[in-house]
Amino acid sequence: MNIRQEVKPYLEYCRFRKELDEKTIKAYRIDLRQYFEFVDCDMPEKRQIEAYITDLHKRWRQKTVKRKIASVKAFYRYLEDEELLSDNPFRKIRVKFKETQVLPRIIPRAEIERLLNSMYARLAGDGAGGGKYLVRDIAVVEVLFATGARVSEVCSIRADALELDAGLVRIMGKGGKERYIQIGEPAVRELLKRYYTENEAAIKASGYFFVNRLGGRYTEQSVRTMLKRYTRLAGIERNITPHMFRHSFATYLIEEGADISCVQQILGHSSIKTTQIYVHVAAAKQAELLKELHPRGRMRISAAA
């Protein structure tokens, strides 16, 4: 059989049965195409797969290598489950990774405050100009920070997914999993109400809560571009990305004493191991504060010989 012909049905299975998002489907498609281009056959021998894995390590970072191998393994498991394959070539391959932990980048609290103050000041000084869209942009930033949601999740919030009076938002996460997050800050809820009132017709027509100037869904790339603009206008030199709000949200909650399992649920992590990295970030900040502020460092004490 021509296994490569099964890639399209597999991706459809991932889309409609597993309900994976389009970003994941695109990554799978690229990974499988690159794999088959390298091995150039349906049933590669062990040495060909080993050569492919070696080539991945030469070209990509460990995290990307791990994902690409997982993509191919998942495809072969699907073929086995569908009884289209009796001999899975990847069962003979053992891949070990040296886990390197890269701490997530967060936005200093002062810079989040500076960014929002700058945006609100522009809104206050803006007459009938672009205020309607500035309200939307502030609302997007507030929701990113208030919920810790991924930018794709925020851009995909449906028109009926927000209970504005209660401040409850329904987030559609990876794999079609729903979670509800409470927006507790009254000022943020009031801003969201204002945004909805000013854009109600476009929101109802598009079906999405955040809409662009043409009445369509506000895209992830538009949010990234918007953030670059307003961080620059606020005089912030740091390159702030939407995902950094997610990292900051989780880190600051844990620093304030939030239970890690609660943060896990809010972020929509399937495994608590993914959430634990924020504990390390919070601990690193704690160590930094103790080093800088603990009074012992400013005491003049002669150590015993």
Short description:
The chain has helices at 7-16, 22-39, 46-59, 62-81, 109-125, 131-147, 151-155, 186-206, 220-233, 242-255, 260-267, 272-275, 277-293; strands at residues 162-163, 168-172, 178-182. The protein is mostly helical.
Structural account:
By secondary structure, this protein is mainly alpha-helical. It has 2 domains: 3-92, Orthogonal Bundle (DNA polymerase, domain 1), CATH 1.10.150; 110-239, Intergrase catalytic core (hpI Integrase, Chain A). 59% of the residues lie in helices and 4% in strands. The protein is built from 13 helices and 3 strands, in the order αααααααβββαααααα. The protein has helices at 7-16, 22-39, 46-59, 62-81, 109-125, 131-147, 151-155, 186-206, 220-233, 242-255, 260-267, 272-275, 277-293, and strands spanning 162-163, 168-172, 178-182. The chain has a 3-stranded antiparallel beta sheet with strand order 1-2-3, with no helix packed on it. Helix 6 (131-147) crosses helix 10 (242-255). The chain is globular.
| CATH fourth-tier homologous superfamily of the largest domain | Intergrase catalytic core
Number of beta-strand segments: 3
Strand order of the largest sheet: 1-2-3
The low-pLDDT segments are none
Mean pLDDT: 87
Task: Give helix % range.
Answer: 55-70%
Number of domains: 2
CATH topology of the largest domain: hpI Integrase, Chain A
Q: How many helical elements?
A: 13
